[in-house]
Design a protein that fits this description.
Layout lengths: L3 H18 L1 H8 L7 H19 L10 H26 L18 H17 L2 H29 L1 H9 L5
């Protein structure tokens, strides 16, 4: 099976589910927080690694000949999809003032990014590609810088409410 087919469920959840639940949320999801200094470079690295993942994966094939990598890859991939769906549901229906603090956001301030990493890591395991694994790692490191910018923006926008939330809920897990 072509790696392309791994993208279909991911994109369906990421964009299809979000647009079904709340069209306005699609616009919110497309906006990035204002970037400073090295965050700007991280933003472009994030975008390029994202594009590389989507462009490279269709040229790879899911490998099924070894059970353990297949099983671990499927668990990561499917777990990432489920977490992404839960993140999308919370993002589509934020608490008052657009600060997402309910649902899965009670346990992680950035569950969507965690879900992307799980899903993409699962894809890399399923196709057993060192190059794709490298792309996923670059994606995740650059995503951390995007998250830092988003958290600064949330603090500036939501003030004490975000500060209380950040003290109560971990950044990732």
């Amino acid at each position: 099976m072509s790696g392309f087919w791994l993208l279909v469920p991911f994109l369906s959840v990421r964009f299809g589910l979000l647009s079904l639940l709340n069209r306005e949320a699609v616009g919110r999801a497309a906006r990035f927080a204002p970037m400073r200094g090295g965050e700007k470079a991280a933003y472009w690295i994030y975008q390029l690694s994202n594009a590389a993942l989507f462009l490279y994966l269709p040229f790879l094939r899911v490998r099924t000949e070894q059970a353990l990598p297949l099983f671990v890859g499927l668990i990561c991939y499917l777990g990432g999809l489920v977490l992404c769906a839960a993140s999308i549901a919370g993002f589509a229906a934020p608490s008052g003032g657009s600060l997402c603090t309910k649902g899965i956001y009670r346990f992680s301030r950035n569950p969507m990014y965690v879900s992307y990493f799980l899903c993409f890591a699962g894809m890399a395991l399923l196709v057993r590609s060192a190059a794709l694994t490298g792309i996923v790692l670059v994606f995740q490191v650059s995503a951390h810088w995007i998250i830092l910018a988003e958290e600064r923006w949330c603090l500036e926008t939501f003030g004490a409410a975000y500060q209380r939330y950040a003290r109560r809920v971990r950044r990732y897990l």
